[in-house]
């Protein structure tokens, strides 16, 4: 609210608005961060379901209005979405087309979505961006860019793997709406969009990545503890895939008396370190490189109970050998 509480202050998510006396083009923030289980994606890609039952995705919203026939109920409206990566792709294609003075279509998409009606029809959006260098008379166009959106419908078909597509020849147009822009106006609009995406990723990405790595480290530690207690089980948890070239070493096939901590000396030496500068090595590898370095894990704050136990077993073995 305002200071005098007599006017409402509206907060909108518009990134850039281009307006003429007949049309409007607007880009808006409809982005969502990925869940922590998919932190490396940064952007939501449909892996999670929202409260409304829909898949959560990260998008840049595009709105086009045509009020050449009047405003209010006479205004024609259409909407489309592109992913942040697609927005960057469009920006790069736009720059190339302008530099080379091309007549070219730089982006096309068709999306069918939602629940079909009783006749099998579902909402479908056709979206296109193209550039025409000259007009029909061969004159260089002042507004060479066209953004066209058609919110129609078509019969929705779902194939065996769950992907949806429109049945050929069934598209019914909702009325194509288009906006024309100059090179400069379109460049400024998309420059604002890609700049905003980058700032958004920095704002949301830092915490998401930190939280994701904490979760990943916990998953690795839990996996190592389970392996130490049950060496026959070699299956890692679903949320953890060991990096290539750093798979958990196989347990030794040699027999050895079981220690009070629940693992043999060989199992303790095969235990993978998941914290500190020697992360990724086994205690056995560290023992060969620096025998005294094993003792650090006996008191390390972030060391798991199983890691401390394994380090103690290796240290006991060293003391026995020294004695």
Essential attributes:
about 325 residues; alpha+beta; five-stranded antiparallel sheet; four-stranded antiparallel sheet; 11 strands; about 25% strand; elongated
Total beta strands: 11
Number of helices: 5
What is the domain total for the residues?
2
Please give the share of residues in helix: 25-40%
- Secondary-structure element series: EEEEEEHEEEEEHHHH
Strand content: 15-25%
Alpha-carbon Rg, integer: 30 Å
Q: What can be said about the biggest beta sheet?
A: 5 strands, antiparallel
Principal-axes geometry comes out as elongated
Uncertain regions spanning at least 5 consecutive residues: 237-260
Gap between N and C termini, in Å? Answer: 78 Å
Mean pLDDT: 85
Structural class: alpha+beta
Structure report:
The chain has 323 residues and is an alpha+beta fold. The chain has two domains: 14-206; 242-322, no CATH class. Helices cover 29% and strands 24% of the residues. It is built from five helices and eleven strands, in the order E-E-E-E-E-E-H-E-E-E-E-E-H-H-H-H. It has helices at residues 84-99, 183-229, 265-269, 283-289, 305-322; strands at residues 14-19, 23-30, 45-49, 55-57, 59-66, 76-82, 104-112, 121-131, 145-158, 164-166, 177-181. Strands 7, 8, 9, 10 and 11 form a five-stranded antiparallel sheet that branches. Strands 1-2-5-6 form a four-stranded antiparallel sheet. A two-stranded antiparallel ribbon has the order 3-4. Strand 9 and strand 10 (164-166) form a beta hairpin. The longest helix has 47 residues, at 183-229. The protein is elongated, with a radius of gyration of 30 Å. The protein starts with 13 loop residues before the first strand and ends with a helix.
